[in-house]
Each structure stands twice: as C-alpha cells, then as structure tokens.
Amino acid sequence: MRRVWRALGLCLAVFAAAPAAANPAAVAEAVMGLGRDTRWTQVSVTPIGFDAFHAQGLVKVGDVFFVTAVEILERTTFYPEPRDGFDRSQGRGQGWLFKMNAKGELLAKIKLGEGAVYHAGGLDFDGKRLWVPVAEYRPGGQSILYSVDPATLKVTEQLRVDDHIGAVAMDVVGKTLVGVNWGSAGFHAWPLDPTGRPTRGGGKAISNGAQYIGYQDCHGAGPRRMLCSGVAGYRSRRDVPPTAIGGVELIDLRDFRQMWQAPVQAWNAAGQAMTSNAAFFEPTPEGVRGYFLPEDGRGNLYVYEAAAAR
After folding, report:
1. 124 domain residue, yes or no
2. Looking at the predicted structure, is the pLDDT value of residue 7 above 50?
3. Angle ∠(59,174,186) on CA atoms, nearest 5
4. Which of 62, 109, 224, 274 has the fewest CB atoms within 10 Å around its CB?
5. Range of 214's domain?
C-alpha cells in the first residue's frame, strides 16, 4: 500500500509541476466577439520591480510570466544611402528573457542572441517549450530562433533565418512554427520535422494583406490560427504627434488571411496604446483578459478585461 501511495504522490507531483497554458481556441472564439464598440475595463496595474528595458513579448504559463526584451546599448542610425541592402546600422544591444510573477517580481533571467543579433521578439508557448526569435534590429537582418525549457530555462538554438523575425507563434495542429518579419509586412512558415525541430521553409516571405497595425506579439490560437496584437501611429498632419491605434488580428494559418480584426481601445496615462509592445490574452467566462507591458524600463503590468458579444 505504501508503494501505491508513493507512486500516486509522484504522479501528482509531476502533474502539478507541468506548466499550464491558456486555452488558445477559447481565446480565438472570444476575440471574434470583439469590435469597435467593445469596452476594455482596467482590472489592475502592477509596477514591474526590475528594468525590463524594451519589452517585446509576453506569455503567461501557469502563474508566471515570461517576457522578452531588448536592451539597447547603441541605437541604430540611418545611412545616407543603403549599404549592402540595409538602410541603417546594426547598433548594439542585448536580448533578454525574463521570468516574473504576477507581483512584477523577477524570478530569473537569461541572455539570448549573439553579436548584432540582439532584438528578442514576440514569443509563444506550445505547451512544452517557449519559442523565441532574436534578430538584428533592422529590416532584413538575420535572426536566430530558439526554444527554451520554461522550467529550467535551458536554451536550444533551432534555426537561423535570413530575415528579421519580430515575433513567432506555434501552430500546434499544423506542426509549423510561424514568424512575422519587420513591420509585419510578411509571414514565414517552418514545418517541424519528426523530432519537433523547425525546418527551413520556402525562403521568401508570404505577403501580409493587412497593414493597419504592425504586429508586436503573436500566439497560437487554436487549430491553424494565430492571434497577433500590435500598434501603428497615424498623423492628420506632419507637424502633429501621431495617434496610437492598437488592435488584435486573428489570422488563418492555412492561407494567412485575417479572420477577424478589432481595435483595443485602451491607453496608459502617456497615451501609449496597450498593445504597443508585449501583450498576452486569455479567455474569461465573459470574454477576454489582456495582459500588457506597453512601457520601457520599470513600467507596469496592466490587466484589462473585455466582454465578447455572443
């Protein structure tokens, strides 16, 4: 009997240690109930207890959050004329992956990237592994795609890509890792081999038919779907500050067409759209809960909720 109870206890311990993720299919269904009249209600604002630099990606796994960020040490500068196909210098920086709790306390951190490849972008979680792109901080620059064990933070390089990959999402059903490039102008797709490793795709990016926002963060959203959030600034005249418009788009990964688009009408005190940088969504009984990190440095973790039309 003791052996039985010991074995049962071991099974329960393993089950409890397994990371939990949001229901991505339920998130997608709820997002399709959002629209221009949707009201986003602030639930909480939690100060971040560490320098998160320029946060780019956010995912919630169980009760903890993983945040990707870029620490800029030397800003890129534009060339008078393109050089070797690039419009700007590489700059210098460091890519980071932070693990924090809901109180904004730092639990762990690791460096990602190498040399000029330091822009850690939007990340995703497939139920077992985190997927993180790190790229040069300029259009068309090279990228390295990593997987990270969320429990141990062990990093595995998966693939090198000749394009700036700003965010990735895992299509679990289609067994494909999907990436978006600079300004979300196009998509890349890398099918997984039998070992779960992404293989080199067709090379040329698939054009994105929607351009009203630039994607900052993306996540798998159920069978053959991806949910991306982002922002764009629009000016009525050149001499006035831009108006930040944030939103979400649900994308069909079978043909990379937008299934649903909705604005996220929520801003911080400085006028930054909540979807300016890192964002993550999970379902609620009424609709959607969003977690946002729009600010640089020691900013805030904002939580908003929105009811979906049924």
Report:
1. yes
2. no
3. 70
4. 62
5. 22-307
Compute the distance between CA of residue 280 and CA of residue 60 in angstroms, rounded to an integer.
Answer: 7
**Would you state the pLDDT for residue 204?**
82
Distance (Å) of CA 139 to CA 76, 147, 193, 275: 11, 23, 28, 21
Residue 224, both tokens = 């053959």
Distance CA 192, CA 172 (A): 10
Report pLDDT for 14.
38
Residue at 13 is within a domain? no
- Domain assignment present for residue 38? The answer is yes
Looking at residue 1, its pLDDT comes to: 46
pTM: 0.92
CA-nearest of 91, 244, 260, 60 to 164 is: 91
| The two structure tokens encoding residue 107 | 């639990």
* Per-residue pLDDT, 211: 87
Q: How many structural domains does the chain have?
A: 1
- Separation between Cα atoms, residue 183 and residue 185, nearest integer Å: 5
* Rounded Cα gap, residues 168 and 71, in angstroms: 20
Residue pair 90/113 in contact (Cβ under 8 Å)? The answer is: no
Give the integer Cα–Cα distance in Å for 119 and 106. 20
Which residues 6+ apart lie within 8 Å of 35 measured at CB? 262, 309
How far is Cα 122 from Cα 59, in angstroms, rounded to an integer?
9
Average pLDDT over every residue of 44-73:
98
Averaged pLDDT, 168-189: 96
CA 269/CA 264 separation, integer angstroms: 15
Distances 150 to 25, 59, 128, 228 between C-alpha atoms, Å: 22, 11, 8, 22
Q: Are 37 and 64 in contact (CB under 8 A)?
A: no
Indicate whether 164 belongs to any domain. Answer: yes
